Amino acid sequence: MKYVDEFRNPELIEKTAAEIERLATPERHYRIMEICGGHTHAIYRFGLKDLLPDNIVLIHGPGCPVCVLPMGRVDDGLALAEQDEVILTAFGDMMRVPGQRGTPLELKAQGADIRMVYSPLDALALAQKNPEKHVVFLAIGFETTAPSTALTLKRAKALGVENFSVFNNHVTIIPAIRAILDSPGMRLDAFIGPGHVSTVIGCRPYEFVARDHGRPFVTSGFEPLDLLQSMVMVLRQLAAGEAKVENQYARAVPWDGNQPALKAMSETFTLRPYFEWRGLGSISQSALAVSEAYADWDSERRFDIPGVQVTDPKAAQCGEVLKGVLKPPQCKIFGTECTPERPIGALMVSSEGACAAYYHYVHRQHTAGD
After folding, report:
1. Are 93 and 65 in contact (CB under 8 A)?
2. Is residue 30 within 8 Å of 57, Cβ to Cβ?
3. HSE (side-chain half, CA atoms, 13 Å) at 119
4. Which residues are CB-neighbours of 81 under 8 A, at least 6 positions away?
5. Residue 262 to residues 58, 138, 151, 290, 296: CA-CA distances in angstroms?
6. How far apart are CA 176 and CA 284, in angstroms?
7. Tens digits of per-residue pLDDT, 56-73?
8. What is the C-alpha separation between 128 and 142, in angstroms, rounded?
């Protein structure tokens, strides 16, 4: 297929759904985790869950970087923004992420100089235009967005822009998958792998999932037929008693990843010993820090950042939802105290979070019908 609309062809969707129905034997239950928040969003948006037999249970994974950023790191960013000489810049989806002290948008309303940017290069340009200020870019994302931060660091160093730095919160997907697989009581039959991350890291890093844990792993695109075809590929492996890594999204994902992007990341970043994930706790070597070679552009070296750890609100059962123990509406505060307008839990913060997606595409329709 050559065009996006072909991946939404109703006849092909019906045919693929029928193949899933045929492969999913009624006497067996299938628990499949889609890791990426973009996949969760697409599943609800396109109503794909309604096309699946009841014995296929989809588990929503931790692949939404905004959702897993701990409250303490948000508060650290707010502490930077409160300094008179600092302009804090961030992507738009960060502006409403709550820390213990509120959100960047709320602090901006109180007078802090916080600006939304579309790229870290926009933040660097802002620093060049405002030499009397120090511009901090609040970097966030998996390996998907890390290369753009890496290349911006390289440019800042090459240009000698001294009033720019990065507050680095990039996280990595493989340690999170390992943590899920090692979690006591976790029952998963297979994974739908993240498409965007895989355009950078490729498919080879996932081979441990099949080799060491015996679970099929299929990297998928984001259109309806992408996801349905990926489920067919997973079910065929399970029916044959196989466990291997397959690449459904071959039109965008090279098996060995994007080598120039990986090289830029290796030159500018180093692994943190530990990093706190909102809803999942501390995970070893799961996040990136600015390397020593770029220390002059590292906000954590340039400023005195509090670094206070903040416990997630106990009422929000995000960890249980991330691990598949609960579905979003089973959380005690889902849709009442915790909504996209006033998010409390990690998974309601971003539109790609499992709770936010469920709220927009399922919960609101049901409540409107009532």
Report:
1. no
2. yes
3. 10
4. 88, 104, 107, 108, 112, 113, 114, 136
5. 31, 21, 11, 15, 22
6. 9
7. 999 988 888 888 888 899
8. 27
Given pLDDT bands bounded at 50, 70 and 90, which one contains residue 254? very high
Q: Report pLDDT digits (tens) over 3-29.
A: 778 899 999 999 999 999 999 999 999
305 DSSP 8-state letter = -
Q: Determine the 3-state secondary structure of 11 from DSSP.
A: helix
Q: What's the length of the chain?
A: 370
Q: What angle do CA 41, 44, 47 make, to 5 degrees?
A: 140
pTM for the whole thing?
A: 0.91
Distance CA 7, CA 295 (A): 45
Q: How far apart are CA 132 and CA 129, in angstroms?
A: 9
Ramachandran region, residue 248 (left: φ > 0; alpha: ψ -120 to 50; beta: rest): alpha
- List the domains of the chain with CATH numbers: 1-311 (3.40.50.11740), 318-369 (no CATH)
Q: What token pair was written down for 77?
A: 């960013």
